[in-house]
Amino acid sequence: MKSPLMVSLALVISATSLGAQDTLSAAKDLYASAAYEDALATLGRINPLSADVSRQIDEYRAFCLFALGRMNEAESVAEALIRRQPLATLETADTSPRLERMFSDVRKRLLPSLIRQQFRTARSAIDRKDFSAAEPPLTEAHLMIAEAQRVGVKDDGLGDLSVLVDGFLQLIRSSAEPRLATKAEAATVASNTTPAPPPVAAQPPATQAHSASAASAAAVYTIADEGVSPPVTIDQRVPAMDPQLQTITRATKRSGMFDIVIDESGHVVEATVRRSLNASFDSLVVRTASRWRYQPARKDGVPVRFVKTIVLVP
Fold first, then answer.
1. Is there a contact between 75 and 106 (Cβ–Cβ < 8 Å)?
2. pLDDT tens profile 72-92
3. N or C: the chain end with fewer CB closer than 10 Å?
């Protein structure tokens, strides 16, 4: 049975929520009657108790500012909304084509930055081997890339980002099944055996790498960095895979990932195996990478070093 205090608190919250909705409705009516200043003042008095009410307040605040010709403020409110929910749409009946266009323009401007932000978050989690933390931002980035392509965002790096996002998602999802199977097997073994001392943690296997020169102390950029034009491929011929090995890797749905460092002249100076396809084939790819050529990445028109991640799907 609920205590009187809990019942009273629930009633207060309910009354406050109803009050917020009534005030929001009043602000909408003022906006509809072109009383934009009064609508803004009314919106400022609302204490939102839900994300939905908060979003509606900000939407109508942007509407009012736009109608008053305060474009910078309207776009600032729209930007805050889009940063919180990049793919949310305006569904209110009060949305005019001009407002839709303003929100669309702000979203197009922000999407490349938001996509890279999600990718950096995911890449950091992947580097920590925390795949469960990496999947949500990768999924969000995948959806935002699709939206960016739909609305015609111009960004030289989105093509490479799309390949990497999908490649990492495949990596995570393909590795999930073996992990679940291992956990199930471990649980079965544990239920039928006496506890054993914890094993000594094994050191991770050394990453295969080939380096034509030591890594420079200069800044090295990636596709996640803004304001950087990625390298343009001149020659990136991947060695042919043995047909039998290709059949095996396709059956296991396995993909390979390689990080290559491209210097300021467009040469590959380092190649690292991030996800192995096959030990012998990995070595062949690493050796071949030294012969690949690119137009170098550029930042502010100046050639820079760049780490390019390549996904190989047999």
1. yes
2. 999 999 999 999 999 988 877
3. N
